[in-house]
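Handout, section 4.2: multi-component inputs.
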Amino acid sequence: MKNPISNLQKVFESRIRLGIMSALMVNDTLDFNTLKGLLGLTDGNLASHLKALEQQEIIVVSKQFIGRKTSTSYKATGHGRELFRRHLAALEKLINQK
Amino acid sequence: MESESTNPNNDLRAIRDIMERSSRFLSLSGLAGIFAGLCALIGAFFAWFYIFNSDKERFGEFLRSTDVSITSGIGLYLSLDAILVLVAAILGAACFSRRKARQAGQPVWTPTTRRLIIHLAIPLLTGGIFILILTLRNHLELVASVMLIFYGLSLVNAGKFTFSEIHYLGLTEIVLGILAGVFVSQGLLVWTIGFGLMHLLYGSIMYYRYERQKKVV
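Output:
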């Protein structure tokens, strides 16, 4: 039997990145401040985790102007969704084995 | 929030919690429903009081009387009564929700809140305009029914973004609205049940299910 651990995604080992991705699975797009409020994080902390997810092409970033302010919003990519689903399945398998 | 996860059970719980918090408006308080119900009962009491004082023995007879139009004293009185109830209930819902969000340390104004309000407002405003048309065309007998039906549709539409009780309250209101349309002479009675008693009932259920427990634990 295949070892379920192999499907656990290293990138989602961080609870914060897991949280960001959970929110983006059920929302089409979310902006920075909404994510910040939802997860209760500081700007710097959230930004560094978002950067990591962006670099691995799990999320995409888009910036637009609302009036004069810029608003940055985030969206999960197809690849990111697939990785997250695999991670979830692996977690469930781990629990069922116990 | 701890940064490294070790336990898959905790991970799944965290995922579910964030998915729910980010896609549903959970700050809606049962107290808002109870308050709205009380407002509706008080409003209905004033409506009954006025109708009985106008020498009409029954609501049906009252509706058939020719002097009831939006510009007449009675029409104006009932419209004002209804608008006051609506404004009080909405303000109550806003205040109680803000309070609940503050207690939980959650922001109130989120994309989910916006989505909830938009989905609530589309059928509700349509119903409001339609009621205005009915009133101007002197079809007052259908107003109670139409209010209940459109309000029910609004709740069913908005129910996806908050507690599931709202969905069922919506279905209940739709059924009551149809009944009010069939038994036109009992319109005010059914209205009182729908907006008064049902809000009290569902508000209490939500309060006991989601809010009272948390205080005990």
